What we know:
Layout: H1 12-42, H2 48-60, H3 73-76, H4 79-87, E1 90-94, E2 104-109, H5 116-122, H6 129-132, E3 137-142, H7 152-158, E4 161-163, H8 166-174, E5 180-185, H9 188-192, E6 201-202, H10 209-217, E7 220-227, E8 234-235, H11 243-255, E9 262-265, E10 273-274, E11 282-286, H12 300-321, E12 334-335
Helix pairs in contact: 1-4
Pfam families: DAGAT
GO biological process, one term: triglyceride biosynthetic process
Enzyme class: transferase
Amino acid sequence: MKIEFAPLSLPLQRRLQTAAVVQWVFSFLCLAQCCIAAFIALLFTRFWLLCVLYAAWWFVDREAPLRGGRRIHVVRNSAVWRHMKDFFPVTLVKTHNLLTTRNYIFGYHPHGIMGLGAFCNFSTEATGVSQKFPGIRPYLATLAGNFRMPILRDYLMSGGICPVNRDSIDYILSKNGSGNAIIIVVGGAAESLNCTPGKNSVTLRNRKGFVKLALRHGADLVPVYSFGENEVYKQVIFEEGSWGRWVQKKFQKHIGFAPCIFHGRGLFSSNTWGLLPYSKPITTVVGEPITIPKIDNPSQKEVDFYHSVYVDSLIKLFDKYKGRFGLPETEVLEVN
């Protein structure tokens, strides 16, 4: 196969877009390890006092991620994210208004390899989430372990990212006023194992914890589907029962994430393998909110009922918009 390198005359705008995506991929794959290594290394230099002072601050501030975090609007509005958004491009589609007097739990589907649509749309202002939903504060929920990493925790909080655990979600939905929207990637690591181009599949049948949380707080559920999320990377899919899937499930069980063997395009050529995602459109559609009553101790029957309503709503959202975003009308959303 002949390698076709990007032309030297590539517009500056495209180079900036590529650079923005490179830093995101690096952050996703390596930032946690780099933060730990830098923190430890600095302890053995003349800057050791900075590490000690940061550690003291870290201890005093340890509850911040569980109390809504500390978003920084300059970070969320950075031009870096606009360049990253334009690389694909990523688009946010609003279908209904959201009331600022209510709280919401967005169920985001599918996970994809890196959750690019979730990050671009809800942890930055690149696609104008605050303009499309005025008065709504989005909180993208991610693994709690990320907030135990020095420096990384502050970086995540600056974008409005919170831990996906009960303490954090309870605080945001009960002690942070109204107009909050927590975005939960419902399928999680298990769903990422099945992400591949041309496949529209979600892990949802036995994921009911987010529905129970919504009932306990009376937070409305909002289905969200990102068309194109699975198209930006190719992945080796291991069959159930294979050694590869066994290893992935062990990692998922004990660490919280599953290692995927994936690839995208190269940095200097679109027809070579690399870690840069393919430049494919990602269109995130925010569906109609489902009104949820407040029930302090919901029964399993009540959880099952509203879960089925949510699943039906997600399927209807997919069916309504699939034809507009490049899928055939015969395409069916696979719910596992």
